[in-house]
Structure prediction request, 188 residues.
Amino acid sequence: MMRRIYYERDSSRGPQGTLNRLLDEVEELREAISTDSDEAVSEELADVLAWLASLANIVGIDLEGAATRKYDNVCPRCTSSPCKCIGIHDAMHG
Amino acid sequence: MMRRIYYERDSSRGPQGTLNRLLDEVEELREAISTDSDEAVSEELADVLAWLASLANIVGIDLEGAATRKYDNVCPRCTSSPCKCIGIHDAMHG
Prediction:
């Protein structure tokens, strides 16, 4: 969907410029979460996903396919769902 | 999918801690893009999406639903697809 809407414009910005916008949106998401407004958080989540999808389009990688290849319904480390890894969970998503 | 795999562990980290991991992953994505390795970029795109999905799960918002509500197959600003907004495209994703 994001490719159809934005690809032409995004591709002219390039990956690093798009990545910078993605980082800006993550900061806006942090602010939205701190306000506890579900509507604001929902909007910022959508924006972060939109910029991530735009970035994937620019580098020519299917975002959903990339996620499915890596996670495929289980934790890639312990191959369980729910994840059963022992230790620091932060190490798991990769 | 990410909710099923990781919700229990993610929810114990809280939104801000998960947001910090999301930012770490975006930086890893930046490094992957700079290496021009499609496999590395694909893995990091998957990780960023995984952490974004985890964050959405923690705050109780459906990520795909949030994106669909905001974008709904058109640019929310000009309501066109492809986007026809005039001026700086960076202002458009919101």
